[in-house]
Amino acid sequence: MADTSPSNTGSSPKGPTIETARNDFSEILSFLKTLALFLAAAFILRASVVEAFKIPSLSMYPTLKEGDHILVSKLSYGFRLPLITNSIFGFAEPHRGDIVVFTRPDDPRSPEDDSAINIIKRVIGLPGEKVEVRETKVYINDVPLDEPYAHYDFDGIPDGNFGPAVIPAGHIFLMGDNRDHSKDSRFWTYPFLDISRVKGRALIIYWSWAGLSRIGTLLR
Fold this sequence. Notes:
1 helix
């Protein structure tokens, strides 16, 4: 009698096998791990090495214009970790004339939470110095400061006068280049910024809606 049962020809079954599914899962898991490491590295790089900022106002005009996009070195003065306001440790202090990005403690006279806002200004006074502002002149230790970057629309404003006052140790005095349109140290309830709150030094304009000729401009 003939055997009528299906013959086993040794052909492979159709559809994915358990082994194939395992390999696919391993590849997906490997990709996700790589992506997570990449994102973590980018996050740490942004918080600790270099960060991009957009200029939202004219307080630093003409050095910086509204619509400029800048890169800021986060390692100019110290090292900070993600989500930490102050630097972990500092290895340098800002110099006079540096353009810096920082946050400051919330000012009770301000309608906004200043501690959550990135601010950009120029370092004018250093620790231990006496600073005074009278109309269009800034005096450091009673000597007029040469400021080719300073811009005035009204030859100074009465509210912009300040001091004289001595800057405490570990603190700096900051002003915007657009002196008649900058809410800076002159107007804060406590005028001096703790250096540990400085995020970094502005380096270069990498993009600008104010004109392509501004791209690549080094900030001084």
